[in-house]
Specification:
12 helices; Rossmann fold; binds adenosine-5'-triphosphate; binds magnesium ion; seven-stranded mixed beta sheet; alpha/beta
């Protein structure tokens, strides 16, 4: 079976995450996508995250209706920061020989890959699927790689990954580009909008997740402490009359 590991803080999971998983599952024939919330993400320890249990519970609700999607406890409490190289190796050790594992990631996160722990080893362990995100360009994939793997401009041109689709195959790394996702939403925006109604929140998170945020009174205090630099109305167009999720008018991808 083809399987993807989709890591993140998921604070909270939103419709952008679901769109990423769905697009990857369709395109690569994935039989399973593990959504793996990090207990202690190495890169996100400045802001206080919602409790792991809440983030996991919301993922369980968000993934319940798709048989391919599973909320995973792979990165539950170990007392150590969750490094992807360890998570990937732990998951791989449980898979069958005939299984194939992919690492699913948005371009904004992939841009920092060179600063992760043992990036070369991670890229050698598992093929990556890098997904577009409004505001970021998939053309930056090559440049984001650790120096030892970084292709020259000439090599990139020779491989000719179409602007937002195709595969970059290097010695020591295989990276598939998936440029069709154009979901503008982010968890930061949801946290800033946590005082909105369930109905309004449900345009950006699955309805059961919206209910959960309200029931547990999540993000209400955090909102004032976190400097998002923008109010909820500015960052998410809650006033829009039409239905549907997020604006699809953004370029990139
Ligand atoms: P935050 O605003 O707190 O950083 P986030 O919306 O970026 O939250 P994360 O949990 O940080 O969500 O992201 C987990 C993974 O999902 C990352 O690989 C990220 O790039 C990807 N991702 C999140 N939102 C989107 C989106 N709207 N489009 C494409 N990829 C996304
Ligand atoms: Mg993020």
């Amino acid at each position: 079976m083809k399987i993807a590991l989709f890591g993140g803080t998921f604070d909270p999971v939103h419709l952008g995450h679901i769109a990423v998983a769905r697009a990857a599952a369709e395109k690569f024939g994935l039989g399973r996508v593990y959504f793996v919330p990090a207990d202690l993400p190495p890169h996100k320890q400045k802001r206080k995250l919602a409790d792991f249990q809440h983030r996991f519970a919301m993922l369980a609700l968000a993934t319940a209706d798709d048989p391919r999607f599973v909320a995973s406890l792979l990165d539950a409490h170990t007392g150590q920061p969750n490094y992807s190289i360890d998570t990937v190796r732990r998951l791989k050790s449980t898979l069958k020989k005939s299984d194939k594992l992919y690492f699913l990631i948005g371009i904004d996160a992939f841009k920092d890959i060179a600063t992760w722990r043992q990036p070369e080893e991670l890229l050698a362990e598992v093929e990556f699927i890098v997904v577009s995100r409004p505001g970021y360009s998939l053309a930056d994939v090559g440049r984001a790689l650790p120096e030892s793997l970084r292709p020259t401009d000439l090599m990139m041109r020779a491989m000719r990954p179409q602007r937002s689709e195709g595969t970059i195959a290097l010695m020591g790394a295989t990276i598939h580009l998936l440029g069709e996702v154009r979901e503008k939403v982010s968890s930061t925006q949801i946290r800033a909008a946590a005082t909105k109604s369930v109905k309004q929140l449900s345009r950006y998170v699955p309805p059961l997740v919206a209910e959960y945020i309200k029931k547990e009174n999540l993000y209400v205090e955090a909102t004032s402490k976190e400097s998002t630099g923008a109010s909820a109305d500015k960052v998410l167009s809650f006033q829009e009359a039409r239905h549907g999720h997020t604006s699809r008018s953004h370029k990139n991808g």
